[in-house]
Specification:
Helix content: under 10%
CATH topology of the largest domain: Methylamine Dehydrogenase, Chain H
Mean pLDDT: 89
CATH architecture of the largest domain: 7 Propeller
Number of strands: 54
Shape: globular
Structural class: mainly beta
Largest sheet: 6 strands, mixed
Radius of gyration: 40 Å
Number of domains: 3
Length: 831
């Protein structure tokens, strides 16, 4: 099968839309009438196939039904239809037990496996249709049996071509993402989703910065101290999120009015600034995909909850949409398609309930919980209504109420819809784990999956383990990896348990290397590995199957700036696309702040550094931690109280060639410049310092260069540039490379080459891109003229006779003068 689920779903959805439109054309009587039912009515079966022709072993979607629609969705569809398929080899396939929807039709897939022509026919069995119309009239109709026309399905040896799809972005990109670029969903996740829906940054390159509040060193009489940055207990940037490419954050949750700022995370453009209700914080965002027979699309909300009342706001504008009052108690969990479920587990009563947000949608198939399409402003629905127009929706919203095992000890630790609930009780001498089923395909809902008790080993008791001591307890529950951990700080070890069976799995092979991890440690599970790091600044990587140590990374402090360890304390922030990101912060940092705090990206498999920058970025313990969305890391930097966006940025290229007109055999000098044109480089503070543009530099130099550009550190002396390839399209339309060059610290490059043939050349300089930048290129033109033929040496002409005469006369005169002179000289000597 070469097609995809997405292809089939799209075709089926298109068919349903066409049929739904057909239903909408059925006119209703203008006034109530007493209907006299037609006892018997003919039916007209049909069948279609898309695509037709189709390749061997490719899916085709069959459209099966009759031309008559039911009066409403509530009446269901026609039943017991079938299809007979006569194959090219003379055998017959049969599809049966087919039930249509209320439009009269439905879809079934069929995969032909030999070449040739197939003959398909749909069959409708006679049946009654009994219904009561809108005005109360009762109608009963007998629909006679019918067979469709025979459909010829041509199956060819060569597969048909489906839409080829699109590559992930190779240039700097922004929202909105065209709906046809479906593959880009892999690099455009929101911050509350799995981090792997991002192209995790391979460089500490800065896209833009924005002041959160006044920050940095104060100076003057105050000296080297910095402005307050929110630690401890005074957190800034604490309410923040990235949703569909929009970064939304507060500046300080202690200030009034409480203002939220919404920024395009890739460009830094401010979209809106709002105060919600009476200085309320945003409780959570929601991207909710509504998929029904009548409407298909995603709604983007910001929710503010006040007690049992919820108010939604539009993500793009911040304006109110609709509200839900009298919400049932419980805990929110995000289900499929961004739907919000609200569960309540009563261990004492032995039951679990689930409330379904999507059930508030209209009966007509569109999402209109407030009575108007799309949710009218200020309209509300009473989620607990027992009478009136809201009662039907309120009742419908209760998805289920199931019985669960009784006597489960302790408390719920994690819930995964469609999978399980796990819980735990930690005693003085034992640990109890349990789980019950939420997968309808795994037996009864609420069925007990396991209930296990692990007796603590003697050395726990002998070691005087105190379970009330901070950070010595059950610390991690991961239902994706099906593993949980007990942490014993006295031994500096994790003890792993299966969340499939509740059984004890393993003890960490070696303790955390430094005693400092007794104060604080975090852990994450990914790629079959367990990662632990804390105050000691040593990232340990263990095998998640057996607890064996794989490697250790030390975030060494080269300048002994950090006062209570040789390595910087760290938090794990993201694990994405095979990379792990860590940042430094501290509960109550000393002022002046320690210099050189690291931000680190490692290969999650090997522990090797992909990038590390010391002193550019420092997060906060009591404000908001870094978040990631649309492949950009957004974070509050407590070194200067600005919001930083870290991600891959655009570059720009210039190129010239000289001389523009040259002669065959002469060399040509190609020159140009590669610059960083990220949104932040347009800030006045940057353009004044870099009037010719900010040079693009190598990934290896990126960290120190970003400190120079955005934090005003000294210009690094050893910065290296990026590689540029120079190619030509010669007069014979041959394309080839003629050289490479590396830009210098100013971003410029040059390369010399000798054109091979005379004529007009296109000279192309290309920067292929890097972890920090998307690529760029530029072109110029060059004319090479043919070498002119050499100038012939002229033949001397014979001298005229007159010239010879004059010349001979001149020579004779000179001789005569000399002779006379000699005679006079001799005569004088005789005297």
């Amino acid at each position: 099968m070469t097609t995809s689920k997405g292809k089939t779903t799209t075709i089926a959805a298109a068919l349903l839309i066409i049929l739904a439109m057909a239903i909408s054309l059925v006119a209703l009587p203008a006034e109530k009438q007493t209907a006299t039912a037609q006892d018997t009515k003919a039916s007209y079966a049909f069948i279609g196939a898309t695509p037709n022709p189709v390749g061997v072993n490719q899916e085709t979607l069959l459209h099966i039904g009759i031309t008559e629609q039911k009066q409403s969705e509530a009446h269901g569809g026609w039943f017991d239809m079938s299809v007979t398929i006569e194959r090219p080899d003379g055998t017959t396939d049969t599809l049966d037990d087919i039930t249509t929807d209320s439009t009269g039709g439905t879809g079934r897939t069929y995969v032909p496996n030999i070449e040739g022509t197939y003959y398909l026919q749909a069959h409708f069995p006679a049946q009654w249709y009994n219904y009561t119309d809108y005005w109360g009239a009762v109608t009963s109709t007998w629909y006679e049996a019918s067979d469709s026309e025979v459909l010829e399905l041509v199956v060819q040896a060569d597969p048909i071509e489906y839409y080829p799809g699109h590559a992930l972005p190779t240039e700097f990109w922004t929202r909105p993402i065209n709906a046809q670029l479906r593959e880009w969903s892999d690099v455009s996740g929101s911050s509350y989703m799995d981090d792997d829906y991002n192209e995790a940054p391979e460089s500490p390159h800065v896209l833009w910065t924005k002041p959160l509040t006044i920050g940095g060193v104060v100076g003057g009489d105050i000296g080297q101290y910095s402005f307050e940055h929110g630690d401890a207990y005074q957190g800034k940037f604490s309410s923040r999120m990235v949703v569909a490419g929009i970064l939304i954050y507060t500046h300080d949750t202690n200030l009034r009015p409480l203002i939220y700022t919404a920024v395009d995370i890739r460009t830094g453009e401010v979209l809106w600034e709002k105060t919600f209700l009476d200085n309320r914080t945003i409780s959570f965002p929601q991207l909710f995909f509504w998929d029904s027979y009548n409407y298909h699309g995603t709604f983007a909300y910001l929710w503010v909850t006040v007690g049992s009342n919820w108010q939604s706001f539009d993500l793009y504008t911040g304006e109110p949409r609709f509200s839900i009052t009298n919400m049932p108690s419980g805990t929110n969990i995000v289900g499929e398609n961004g739907n919000i479920y609200r569960y309540n587990i009563n261990l004492g009563g032995g039951y679990m309930t689930l409330w379904n947000f999507s059930a508030l949608g209209s009966m007509e198939g569109s999402w209109s919980p407030s009575g108007g399409f799309g949710g009218n402003i200020y309209m509300a629905i009473n989620a607990s209504a027992t009478s009136g127009s809201d009662a039907t929706r309120a009742t419908r919203a209760w998805a289920w109420n199931i019985s669960i095992p009784t006597g489960l000890p302790g408390s719920v630790q994690a819930v995964k819809l469609g999978d399980r609930v796990v819980g735990m009780q930690q005693g003085t001498n034992e640990l109890s784990l349990w789980g019950f089923n939420l997968d309808p395909e795994n037996g009864a809902m609420g069925r007990e999956l396991f209930r296990e008790t692990w007796e603590f080993p003697d050395y726990f008791i002998e070691g005087n383990i105190s379970w009330v001591t901070y950070n010595t307890a059950w610390v991690h529950t991961d239902l994706e990896a099906k593993i949980g951990f007990l942490w014993v700080k006295e031994f500096r070890k994790h003890y792993a348990f299966s969340l499939e069976t509740g059984e004890y799995l393993w003890e960490q092979e070696i303790p955390q290397t430094s005693y400092l991890d007794i104060y604080s440690i975090g852990r994450r599970v990914a790629y079959g590995r367990v990662y632990t790091v804390g105050q000691a600044g040593q990232l340990h990587c263990f095998n998640a199957t057996n607890g064996k140590l794989l490697w250790i990374y030390n975030a060494t402090d080269p300048y002994t700036e950090f006062l209570w360890g040789n390595s910087w304390s760290l938090d794990i922030q993201f694990i994405s696309k095979g990379k792990i990101y860590m940042f430094h912060s501290e509960h109550s940092p000393i002022n002046p702040l320690f210099r050189g705090a690291p931000a680190i990206c490692l290969n999650a498999t090997t522990g090797e550094e992909i990038w590390r920058v010391n002193g550019l970025l420092r997060k906060t313990d009591w404000g908001g931690s870094p978040i990631m969305g649309d492949s950009v890391i957004a974070m509050y930097n407590s070194y200067d109280q600005r919001v930083y966006a870290i991600g891959k940025g655009p570059s720009a290229m210039t190129v010239t060639a000289a001389p523009k007109f040259s002669v065959e055999g002469d060399s040509v000098l190609v020159e140009g410049m590669v610059t960083d044109v990220s949104p932040g480089t347009n800030d006045l503070t940057i353009t004044m310092r870099f009037p010719n543009g900010v040079p693009a530099v190598s990934d290896e130099s990126q960290g120190e260069w970003m400190k120079h550009v955005y934090a005003q550190f000294e210009r690094p002396a050893d910065v290296t540039g990026v590689e540029v390839t120079i190619s030509v399209l010669d007069p014979n339309n041959n394309s080839y490379d003629v050289g490479t060059a590396t830009t210098d610290a100013s971003g410029t490059f040059c390369c010399e080459f000798i054109p091979e043939v005379p004529g007009l050349y296109t000279v192309i300089a290309t920067f292929k891109g890097s972890g920090a930048y998307y690529g760029s290129y530029a072109e110029t033109y060059l004319k090479v003229n043919e070498t002119p033929p050499p100038t012939a040496t002229p033949t001397p002409s014979p001298a005229p006779m007159t010239d010879m005469y004059v010349t001979g006369f001149g020579a004779g005169m000179i001789i005569a003068i000399v002779v006379v002179g000699l005679l006079l000289f001799l005569m004088l000597r005789k005297r």
